[in-house]
Amino acid sequence: MNAGHQTTRRLAAKAGKPICRSCRDTLSRNYASAAAVQTEDQVAQHIPPVAQTSPQTAYGVNAGVVLSRPPQITRDLHPFESAFFLYQRRLNERSALPFTRYFYYKDRTPADREWKRKIKQRLTPARDIGRYKGYGEEAWNDEVLVGAKESDFNWQVERLLEDAETTGAEDQPPGSSETTSSAVTQKKVEHEAVERPMSRITEADKKNDFKSLNRALQRTLYLLVKDKEGRWMFPQDRLQKETLKEAAHRVLEYSAGVNMNTWVVGNVPIGHYQQDYTKSLKTDAGLNELGLKTFFMKIRIMAGQANLKENQLGLKDFKWLAKEEIQKEVEQDYWRSIKNMLAERSVGAVAVQLAVASGVNVVTVCSAKNIDKVKALGVHAVFNYNPPSVTDGILSALKGIEYLGVADGISTADSAAGWTLVYKALGGRLSGVQPNPPGILEDAQGELLWADNTPSRDRDIGEAVRGR
Amino acid sequence: MALRELPFRTVSGLCREVRPAVHAVRPSLRRNASAGALQEVEDSSSFAVPPPSKDLVQNFDPIARSRLRRQGKKQLPASRYQYRPPKYYRGPLHPHQPPPASDPVSREFQPGPFSLPRLEQTYQSTIAADILTLTYQHYPPGYRPPKVENRLRQWSGDSPYFKNRPLRGPRGRGEELRLLNEPRTFRNVPKITKITVHSMVPEAQENSAYLHVAGMILQAVSNVRATAHKARHNVVGWGLREGKYVAVTSHMEREDAHHFLAKLVDVVLPRIKEWKGVPGSSGDGAGNMSFGLTPAQVTLFPEIEVNYDAYPPKMIPGMHITIHTDATNNKDARLLLQAIGLPFYGKLND
Question: Do you know which CDD domains this protein is assigned to (chain A) (predicted)?
Fold first, then answer.
């Protein structure tokens, strides 16, 4: 037992309300073991306490399946990412050794002539970074201008296709070719047309066909079904005398049919949902059933399609939805229990998510176009930071909430101006990401926490921040 | 553990102690020299200046501007305008410090990354989550892991030299300290860390052309400069003579490694006739897996095919590919590679 345990226990005790039974069991047992039972430590492995001999209350157990289709294509790059990649490739042109032409093209061959024509036009061996020369007087001019297309993915694809299809002699007038001096018969080299890549937006995307598996190829899609009462949820059924994995197979067969090639990932559930009844039920075994617990198994679909025609669970409809679309369909407390098992790359806003996850009501400001995104993170209230009345809005939103303090993720004079009035009115804690935020009040009440040295102190955060 | 329930309760526990602090503290208990200096130098932000007009933006031509500036004037040599970092690092106290390697003016700067590899995206979105589910080990609340006894032995005896001496290794010949298998969490899902391509050409001792060809092939395939290695000992059976160059390697990391592996799995290996897979006996117990390709299989790489004529056919070497992962045992490493698309055959080495 170490200091961490003791702190945990003290906090748990301070929180007042009783904690869950198994945890309390553990905690009290720890006290006991520390006090008297020396033999406990010799028993290397702790065996959790067996349930009571005649339990009076119980939960019904359901097996659910999270059937998902993984992303089929790469995601669209953020404009900043593609601009960064283009810039790095141009820097590479500046520092790389020259292209070894004779290793790839024999001298005086048609391919060699074509190469010479093309390199004259684009100045660089790379085919999709635009007209740029990495050597010479003007190599410093490696940044693209405002509104340039070079970093656009589609533009780059077009350039590659164009390079494959053309000979480089198309634009030149017929007489001026460098090889026409002799009577060499100018054999017209025609490249055949190259097959275009398939569109990244499919028919199903255009029609917004939620039943199709060809929709949203960049996202993970999950199968959601509509039950008898008209609620959208993952397919589920009562667990019978079987393992969870067997139950997952059965639930899938009973709900979405056999016309699918699927793989159950692992033998353990990836999450659970607890539904409490308003009034407990009496079961056949004489137990008081307080509610239902649904354990979800993860399944991947390889081929096929769901078919509800002969389903035995009374399902009415199904949809293949991405994560944020699920949120709109399901009930709020259902969403709260399932959202963390739908794995997704985290996209920014980590601080807000951490705060919300730890039970804090977050009131924040952001720009007008981001308001919906921030709302989706589960904040209590969000305001546009531009209007001057924002302070009043924040203060009114904070009414009736226990107030902790201000966290500033930018710590510039502008951002400080946003919260100064709120801070003046309420005080509390203050945290920033710079040691001396400009515009900090002389008479600031409270403590200032710095986040600037967190990366060096905490190894995990530091590694994540520095991208190692 | 109680920790599982804790986030909400921690907050409610902490909240009680939060009140406007009585002691009014000037926030700058600790000062950073840089922050203070910065405030003195820059009193206004560049964001306060309005952006340039649309007309100016559209007609901006950096080349023409630079030519106009240089017109008729003799410029100083380029070295007067350019900053060159110091050639040698002269220690932390020297006034002339080199810039970090991420700075484009640094001598160590290497551009990149140039793309976001597809395999890496698949790993992030699909493979990592699946491996976490597959290797999850449940511990009931209150579980405490069994105590691991010290794996290293004490020096016992009354020699004064035993004091402060590092502990002894495990007993037994060839016995070594195996890696610890930490419980699986979202932080330690195995991933690809490095790929090493290696090709040994003993014929290079007589004719160095073999080494050049092997080096060119490795470079073309891996996008990394190849390094040549000398034989360290005389081995008569293999015809090795000490000090002669016999092998080339190249190490790929990050983007290069992902592109190479994707190319291997999607283009090269499917075209090999009757390829059985990676031998199941592969693996060193520390998460590294190796397998080999014959000269005929090496020619299937698209980079070799595009100018196959440039390589003398008899000199094309085979190669060994080692995939380094940060798994701590063979099983996890194999699981990762199978998820990426490398099949294994035969008896598995666990």
Answer: NUDIX_MRP_L46
Domains in chain B, start-ordered, CATH in brackets? Answer: 77-111 (no CATH), 192-345 (3.30.1440.10)
A37-56 pLDDT, tens digit each? 344 444 455 666 665 555 57
- The pLDDT tens digits for A375-423 are 666 666 776 665 566 667 777 777 666 666 666 655 555 566 666 677 6
Least CB–CB distance from A12: residue in B9, B111, B113: B9
| B54 in A contact zone (CB under 8 Å) | no
Q: Please write the tens of the pLDDT for every residue from A421-433.
A: 776 666 666 655 5
The set of residues, in sequence order, having a beta carbon less than 8 Å from that of B256 and lying 6+ positions away, is B195, B222, B223, B224
Find the closest chain A residue to B128 by CA distance. A343
Q: What pLDDT shows up at residue A387?
A: 59
Specify the long-range contacts of residues A27-35, CB closer than 8 Å, at least 24 apart.
A27/B2, A29/B142, A30/A1, A30/A5, A34/A1
For residue A35, is pLDDT > 70?
no
Residue pair A340/A332 in contact by the 8 Å Cβ criterion: no
- Residue B108 contacts A, CB cutoff 8 Å: no
Average of per-residue pLDDT values in chain B: 86
Reduced to 3 states (helix: H, G, I; strand: E, B; else coil), residue A226 is strand
- Contact status of B16 with chain A (Cβ, < 8 Å): yes
Mutate to test the interface with B, among A26, A104, A127, A340 (most CBs of B within 10 A): A26
Render pLDDT for B177-194 as a digit per residue (tens, 0 to 9). 888 888 898 889 999 999
Q: Is the pLDDT of residue A184 over 80?
A: no
Q: Hey, which residues 25-84 in chain A have their CB within 8 Å of chain B?
A: 25-27, 29, 44-46, 48, 70-71, 74-75, 77, 81
Give A20's pLDDT tier (boundaries 50, 70, 90): low
User: B142 and A22: CB-CB below 8 Å?
Assistant: yes
**Would you call B142 an interface residue with chain A, using a CB distance cutoff of 8 Å?**
yes
Query: Distance between CA A30 and CA A211 in Å, rounded?
Result: 53
Percent of chain A past pLDDT 70, that is, above it, reads: 59
Q: With an 8 Å Cβ cutoff, are B2 and A12 in contact?
A: yes
Which residues of chain B form beta strands (DSSP E)? 192-200, 227-230, 245-253, 278-279, 288-293, 319-325, 344-345
Position of tokens 């009345």? Answer: A389
- Cβ distance A88 to B12 less than 8 Å, yes or no, reads no
| Chain-chain contact of B111 with A266 (C-beta, under 8 angstroms) | no
| Structural domains present in chain A | 3-49 (no CATH), 60-73+202-341 (3.90.79.10), 79-171 (no CATH), 350-466 (3.40.50.720)
Q: Give CA–CA dist A384/A370, Å, rounded.
A: 9
Separation of alpha carbons B246 and B235, rounded Å? 12
Subunit contact A435:B30, Cβ cutoff 8 A:
yes
